[in-house]
Design brief:
about 190 residues, mainly alpha
């Protein structure tokens, strides 16, 4: 790998850390280990091609362009936490991954939603958290964190509520966004 490619890969990994909390290679390798998958099975569950998954893992591509895939990544992170915590078995995890895979494109914000049942393993049982994550995925699919932060700053004086919305759902952690959502749905 030449210096330019290496620089580009590092920049992509930095962007991934900003958008997803860590480089996707690290995140995906942890999911593979925690859920007993291989790379091909992870690609199927996420709804990505194997080459696309490889490019994301290696830093050749920075961003997951499909919000439904981002939602599936988050669902798998929740599932992996359940497995690590010993709260579900390997068989339950396999069934949950099949359910996550079937949620291709379904979301709670769409009028034709194919959202899974509340309480399904691997899918956030809290409908508020699911809505918040879909809002986050949508915002993050149209802009990166730097652009969202810049827009938030520009709006802060004239439209403080909108600026806060962009900051909380576009940049902040899910926990903070859930708190914001619950406060405003009150």
């Amino acid at each position: 790998m030449d210096a330019t490619q290496q620089e580009s890969t590092e920049k992509a990994r930095e962007q991934q850390t900003t958008w997803y909390g860590e480089p996707l290679g690290t995140l995906f390798r942890r999911l593979i280990a925690d859920l007993g998958l291989n790379q091909a099975r992870l690609a199927v569950v996420l709804g990505l091609s194997a080459p696309m998954l490889s490019q994301l893992m290696s830093g050749q591509r920075a961003k997951i362009g499909n919000p439904a895939v981002v939602q599936r990544v988050r669902s798998l992170q929740d599932l992996a936490a359940e497995v690590r915590g010993g709260r579900i078995s390997a068989a339950e995890a396999t069934a949950a991954m099949d359910e996550i895979r079937r949620t291709a494109g379904g979301n709670v914000l769409s009028p034709n939603s194919t959202a899974t049942r509340p309480g399904s393993v691997g899918v956030p049982a809290n409908p508020t958290k699911r809505v918040v994550r879909e809002i986050q995925a949508l915002l993050r699919s149209v802009s990166d964190a730097g652009e969202i932060q810049s827009a938030s700053r520009l709006l802060a004086e004239s439209h403080p509520e909108l600026a806060e919305f962009l900051r909380v759902y576009g940049i902040a952690r899910t926990r903070e966004a859930v708190e914001h959502y619950e406060h405003h749905q009150g």
